[in-house]
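job 3f2a | input accepted
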Amino acid sequence: MAGNTDLLPMSSGRIKDALGMLLSGGLVGLYLAFPGYSYFDHDALWVASSFAFAAWLIKAVDLGGAVSGAIVAFLFFQTGRWGAFTILLFVFCLTSGATMLSARKTTKKPARRRASQVAANLFVPTLMLVTSHWNILFGFLAPSIAVGGLCELAADTVSSEIGSAYGRPTYMIGSRHQVEPGVNGGVSLLGSTIGIGSSAAVAILAAVVYPSPYPYHVRFTEFGLASLAGIFGMYVDSMLGASLETRGKLDNDAVNLLSSVITSVTVFLLLSALLYIGAF
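job 3f2a | predicted structure (280 res):
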């Protein structure tokens, strides 16, 4: 799927990281701007800080990534308690595990996730959870859209890491042209399969643990659609990588953010269609 992130000039990387942390911090401001949200759960504070410190300790993120990750984890816990945080933790374990497994195969030192990468991948899902209590319609749609973003993140990252290390043969998406594993836009049977499985696993976990007033058949339907959208987003990421990123029009963070937005819009359209025809 998406290739490895190019090394950025230090100044450019710092600017992007600052913007990433600014976006994450802006979500806290948005959270506090609405009635009923103006309190801090002490559990959320220690859970988020412990999570971020552990991620930094195992070298999964750098300092900026840990700060952005702590903010995201805090908002996940505040809005969805242990259920939402469990999903986030599961996605983190999946993606970090895939990165470490890939590094062992390729003998490359795994890069720490930066603040810009955390924001690019998790801004949209976190925004959805922050807005999930605005009204009844948002309460139904927003969690599914957030899970769709997490499904796309898990599918794309795991497929990319495993595919680049073990996926042979690898082909340029949309063609029969064989390319080296890890190339932007390259897809393999192994990478695609494990990416699809990762998306499904996230959706199943969400249907079981996310706090929801709806019965299980509704949860599995909405999160199942989120999983399908996540798989679609995984291939969108590859197409963007093969076209815009390869040509230097977008960098990896922009591709990830755009893929997340497209996935979220897809979930919204699918669920809106079901609501329109009275399927729920």
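job 3f2a | The chain has one domain: 10-276.
job 3f2a | closed
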